[in-house]
Write a structure and sequence with these properties.
The protein has about 450 residues and is an alpha/beta fold. About 30% of the residues lie in helices and about 25% in strands. It has two domains: about 325 residues, ANL, N-terminal domain (Rossmann fold); about 100 residues, 2-Layer Sandwich (GMP Synthetase, Chain A, domain 3).
Length: about 450
């Protein structure tokens, strides 16, 4: 065994039978803890007629009721303020506050103890070590340090690995690029949107070629883009760096990562999390690879506000093949494919925004930014796609190939609108490129406001 390959070789190469035994032991521990300490969880389980004693084997786990984000919103702003009935520790033990971004509704407040925050850093340490971060790296973090978790834990994990960390929080994009040029960091963490946005600013506003800067690896999170081949290729080409994907969430933790072998998927950190995949139609748990479903996840070691069978809405599928890295942690093929909330039927066809992104980002004549708007024209569904033409390209040279590729990849026709390069909205963090106006019964103009 090459110990330099793994952050924790015992856990990362543990035989599957032992790993599942460890997961079940941890699941029972957090379940007992929540039942004893959380008014929310006890009420949820009592309503289902279940107690922790009823869970006697791994297969029993699926009996435990799921938790949705809307439930967490409902119990907030009560004593102990502001967390309410899910808090499992005395308020004096809470040392870290974060909240969700609020992109899908009222933000959820997330308390963590110091132990929980150390657990966050440890989860990220698995990620960064697997992606080749080492003590000799200087890591630049171009994100706004705020109440959102973003790359906070990535910062502390990099320090834990022994890396030198350069925080770029209050700098604007141009200043961040100049700081990279000045200090020559070797690694960076950002959303795919911002990775491409920084490159665009460097090239087109500052006359700096990102490929000539010092960055050789980039860790992405916050959006599916780094697992979408065409988006990953754009980022890697424009920075001349390896780009790795990672997935996490405020209320869950840092649960999966792409390793340096880049097997076209991400490892689930199964020592720290239990991931189940639920069929989108039947609700049954999917055990076999190759079938997409939404992720139900348990954070096995997070104590202040437990995450037990949380319905993440992330759509994933198990990969049938092991990774050449030797980890026994299972892979999810293609990373997070999208969100169940965003995968919608249009003219009877299931549409995933990621499929559109794959097409747009694969064509050299189009810019990085785009928007997808689904609405109705009378009683008929319509999909409008807004894209930017690169300088020197014409509508006539791009329209047919774009429509053909979209039809091939999504089985749908599109109303294409072309815009001059630089005119569509730019985003610094998570992009809002997909809008289904049928669900909201609002106009496109109102959606922009």
């Amino acid at each position: 065994m090459n110990r330099q390959e793994y952050w924790n070789p015992v856990l990362e190469t543990m035989p599957r039978e032992k790993l599942q035994h460890l997961q079940f032991k941890k699941f029972k521990r957090i379940l007992n803890f929540a039942y004893a300490r959380s008014k929310f969880h006890r009420a949820l389980y009592d309503m289902a007629g279940l107690t922790p004693e009823d869970i006697s084997c791994f297969d029993d786990i699926k009996k435990i009721p799921k938790v949705e984000k809307s439930m967490m919103r409902e119990i907030q702003n009560k004593d102990p303020f502001p967390y309410g009935d899910a808090l499992c520790v005395p308020i004096k033990e809470v040392s870290v506050f974060r909240q969700t971004s609020g992109t899908t509704g009222q933000p959820v407040y997330q308390p963590d103890t110091w132990q929980d925050w150390e657990w966050w850093s440890e989860c990220w340490s698995f990620t960064l070590w697997a992606q080749g971060y080492r003590p000799e790296d200087r890591v630049f973090l171009p994100f706004g340090y705020n109440i959102f978790v973003a790359f906070w834990a990535g910062h502390y994990a990099a320090e834990k690995l022994g890396c030198e960390v350069v925080p770029g929080g209050v700098l604007d994009t141009k200043a961040r690029i100049l700081k990279i040029k000045e200090l020559k960091p070797t690694a960076m963490m950002a959303t795919p949107t911002y990775v491409l946005g920084m490159a665009d600013t460097a090239k087109n506003k500052m006359g700096i070629d990102p490929r000539e800067l010092s960055i050789n690896k980039i860790t992405c999170a916050g959006e599916p883009g780094a697992s979408i081949p065409s988006t990953k290729k754009r980022m890697q080409d424009v920075w001349d760096a390896r780009v790795y994907d990672h997935s996490g969430a405020t209320e869950i933790g840092a649960w999966s990562y792409e390793c340096r072998h880049q097997p076209c998927g991400m490892h689930v950190n199964e020592a720290m999390f239990l991931v189940e995949i639920e069929d989108l139609n039947t609700g049954k748990i999917i055990e076999e690879p190759g079938q997409k479903g939404k992720m139900i996840i348990t954070a096995l070691d997070r104590m202040a506000q437990p995450c037990i069978r949380f319905d993440s809405k992330d759509v994933i599928e198990w990969d049938p093949e092991p990774c050449p890295c030797g980890r026994t942690f299972r892979l999810i093929r293609g990373g997070v494919i999208g969100r169940a909330d965003d995968i919608t039927k249009v003219k009877g066809v299931l549409l995933s925004p990621g499929a559109i992104e794959e097409v747009v980002r694969s064509l050299d004549g189009l810019g990085d930014e785009f928007e997808v708007i689904v609405d109705k024209q009378g009683d008929v569904d319509r999909v409008k796609l807004k894209v930017e033409l690169m300088h020197g390209k014409t509508r006539s040279s791009m329209e047919n190939i774009l429509k053909d590729q979209l039809r091939l990849k999504t089985n749908l026709g599109y109303q294409i609108e072309f815009y001059d390069y630089g005119t569509l909205p730019r985003y610094d963090v998570k992009a809002k490129r997909f809008k289904d106006l049928r669900k909201k019964n609002i106009s496109e103009r109102e959606c922009r406001l």
